[in-house]
């Protein structure tokens, strides 16, 4: 082929490929814009005041399309599918307790997105903020609202995704002390200190200000650990436990269990572990659960499953009875404030 | 674990491509041969494409598909092993019948096909399979491409040619995440658009290769008769019987055994200097930026003062980085800058320079195999180093592990200095000197 011909071929290819690329981008942009328009049949969302710790109201990330997508939103617990009040504060992950909220949010930069953790007071005013090293994954506030924890995915940036890891931090709001990575805590496995470079910690759930449960992964296994902030220790209690969530009375942990025989990309089922007897109970939810469940009260679990708008919230009894039911569509990362605890 | 793979880059502002610098006052640089510029362009385009995907993949898995990416990492070791073997295969095929251009095109083509495939797969095993195929393409194309670069230029200017190629390659790697980010800015959640655009960019790279890289003949050093370049039956064994190749492969492997992987280095950097978490994703950018800026000047120095010397000096820069990390002193952000500069200099002085030095030692007929053998030896050694370093870290902590690596690197560098000294038996040097 002569040089001129080759250049013509190249130009034609640039036009064709450029057209395909442009078309794909415009199509995606159009679809993204559509998410800013309210969908018929979706939940009704209005701007308003959202106050954390209001008895009888749940606060969560609204996933419904429209101008309030991704905002912290509240509904009456008695009418979870009813009208939603949106706060204007956007979060990817959220949790609150006793009027303190932790919101993991994206920061849209000029050339790359960043993420940060923001601690909110009851009126969603920012108290503190911390830059995050990766994609937000889990967030928890301790009962009493004085200590918060979050987990992010840190990517090792290699094409095959080889070095995905988690980083979990705990912040004490009174002293301002931030434990940036729980990997610096001493980890005890079978009573002996275990050190490993491949240690990953995620999914903190608090018992009180100083004690918590979490997942530790090392050597291809996951462990339920009990953590002690003052001593800086993590002690393994049980294996094959991910994303624990402690019941309000502190006796049970709801968690993701990797079950044998399930497909490798959807291996997790929702179980409840009795911390005294270490007996496991399968819930009636038989689908793959990839979430840190929350306890709506002492008997009921709430968790997310993929839905039409990204995520729906489902509920199932913690004792293995009953069956799963939809709690709210287009919602993620809820926090409940039951009336009686008020 | 690969030379060019292991430095990575989540995102960065674009930088200029210092391919050649005509018109600089006082000194005249001969231009880099056209074929090298075309191959550099192909690598640049391809790296834009692949780094676009790399940059959004974690986000896509977590936010787009709702997967937990943790289990995903288990496949990585397997990919790297396969990719190293495929590289030998690519080098061998290029020397046998197929010719480097055809093998490289197959490798680039395979990777290009994988991008649109990402649109169709939504589970971890299938995504893993697509990424494995993509890496296979990368393994296939690397040795033939380096062979083509080495065959396209005069022996005396190979360092500069490889430097120009690596700089263009790195520029692409830095541009890719920016491109991906811009698409996601226009179209929130538009991962499918990122994959489609990435596929189009990759296809363009293949097309540029097919259209503008000369085929079997037409390179200055290359004889036109095909019989002259037919590879022997057992090219690897024959290659290692050559003293110069053996020494080079031995040194590359020896030094590779003490070359701590990038992720470990960044992790150590972050911990030892107590850098803020939000710095972490920026660390690879520092390495890539200094690699980009230094690749051509260091390549020219390598042509002038000797590639083996340059290769050794690169490892001394790495040693300097280790030493700074073992004995942290002073302001942490400034020190981090120095460490990353040294790390980037290490790549600039070793990545393309090793390929140039290998090309000096390997006859044209088995150039692809020769490059593959030396680079695979190095990559394998680095893999072993990663495992050993991880174990040492676990047993004794990061400081001791890095201290051991530094001692090992110093010893390896001394041994290599002996093995690579000019005038050693079997020194087939076209490498040193050639002063203009």
UniProtKB/TrEMBL annotation, chain A:
Instruction: Give the source's domain of life in one word.
Output: Bacteria
The record, for SUPFAM superfamilies, names: DPP6 N-terminal domain-like
Q: Which InterPro entries does the record cross-reference, listed alphabetically?
A: 6-blade_b-propeller_TolB-like
Recorded protein name is TolB-like translocation protein
Automatic annotation (TrEMBL), chain B:
What are the Major facilitator superfamily (MFS) profile domain coordinates in residue numbering?
Answer: 35-424
GO MF terms listed in the record are: transmembrane transporter activity
Task: List locations, semicolon-separated.
Answer: Cell membrane
Name the UniProt key words of this record, in alphabetical order: Membrane, Transmembrane, Transmembrane helix
Name a GO CC annotation attached to this entry.
Answer: plasma membrane
Predominant subcellular localization, coarse grouping: membrane
| Start and end residues of each stretch annotated as Disordered | 1-25
| Membrane-spanning parts | 29-46, 52-75, 167-187, 193-213, 248-267, 279-302, 309-329, 335-358, 379-396, 402-420
Q: SUPFAM superfamilies given for it? A: MFS general substrate transporter (SSF103473)
User: Source organism's superkingdom?
Assistant: Bacteria
Report the InterPro entries cross-referenced here.
MFS (IPR011701), MFS_dom (IPR020846), MFS_trans_sf (IPR036259), Sugar_transporter_CS (IPR005829)
| Keyword Transmembrane helix applies | yes
Q: Where is the composition biased (Low complexity)?
A: 1-20
Membrane-topology annotation of the record: Multi-pass membrane protein
What Pfam families does the entry give? MFS_1
Under PANTHER family, the record lists: C-METHYLTRANSFERASE, MAJOR FACILITATOR SUPERFAMILY TRANSPORTER
Name this protein carries in UniProt: Transmembrane efflux protein
The organism is Streptomyces mobaraensis (strain ATCC 29032 / DSM 40847 / JCM 4168 / NBRC 13819 / NCIMB 11159 / IPCR 16-22)
